[in-house]
Amino acid sequence: MRRIYLLILTFVEHAFGQALLSILQSTPGTLSTLNSLINSSTTAKNLLSTANNFTFLAPSNDAFKKWLADQGPTSPSQDLIDATLSYHLVNGGFPTVLFSSKPQFVSTKLSSAAFTNVTNGQVVELFQNGKESEFLSGSKTLSTITSADIVCTGGLIHVIDTVLDVPQGLVTVITQSNLTFFIGGFLNVADQPLVLPVLNGPGVTIFAPNTASALSKFTSLTANATQSELGDVFNYHVVPNFSGYSSNLRNGLVLKTMQGDNLTITIQGNDTFVNQAKIISTDFLIANGVLHTIDRYVGKE
C-alpha cells in the first residue's frame, strides 16, 4: 500500500506541485516567521531549494512565537536556527495516511556535528493519536499537524503547531526529564573519563535504571568499586552503534553492550524487558541516540 500511494503521490507532485519555498512564501499569514528565518539563512535556503523526496514540517507563526520566547532574553544563534530548520526536513515522503498508532522514527537533514551524532541524521518520532497526526522530538516535545499533506515539487508539507526541539546531550536530557534516581546514582558515573566515549559516540542506545530499588542496588554493589568497575557498570547499560528506538526492539534480540557482555530483549504482552529489567518509559531522544528507562539494574551482581 505504501509503495502504491507514494507512486501516486510522486505523479501528483511532478504534475501539479509548486516549489517548496514558493508555497511557504504564499502563506504569509500563517508562516511569515518561518519565511523570515529561512530568508535570513543561506544554509536553510540552499537546503530547502534543493530538497527532493522529503516531508517538510512547517511551524506556524504561533509555534515560532512560543519557541522564540522559550529561548530567553537573547536571540537564538544562527547555528541553532539552521539546525532547527534542518531538523524539520524529513527524509522521505510521509503523508498522514501512512501514520499509525505504531511509532515510526524517521531521519531528518539535521546532521551537523555540533548538534547530533546519529548516523543518517537525527530522527523525529511520528505517529497517529486518534484523529491527530503528531510528532515527538527532543524533551518529548509534542507537535500536532494543523494543515496536512500540502503537495509541492519533490515532497510534502505539514504545518505544525509546535517547533520541533533539537535533542540535547545525555546529561542535559536526563536532568531536564527529571530522571531522579538515575541522576542520583548512575549520572555520577557518567562524570568519569572512562564513559566519555558513551557521551560522544555515534548512535548509542542507553537503558537507564530509574527507580528507588535500582539506585539502592547500584549503591550497594558499587560502594567499594574502582573507577574502572564503575565505568563497566555504566557501560553495561549502553549499546553502541545501534539505533534502539522502541520500534526496533524485537523479542529475542541480543545486543552487545559497550562493556562487552550481551543484553537480551524479551517481549511479553505489552511489556518489554532488557534481561530481567522492565522498560518503563521509552524513546527519550538524545543528541547521539536514544534512552529508555528501566526499573532495575541489569549488571552482574
From TrEMBL:
CC terms in the record's Gene Ontology section? fungal-type vacuole membrane
Q: Which GO terms describe its biological process?
A: macroautophagy
Protein name listed in UniProt: FAS1 domain-containing protein
The signal peptide annotation in the UniProt record is: 1-17
Matching InterPro entries: Adhesion/Biosynth-related (IPR050904), FAS1_dom_sf (IPR036378), FAS1_domain (IPR000782)
Q: Which keywords does the record carry?
A: Signal
Location of the FAS1 domain: 18-164, 167-298
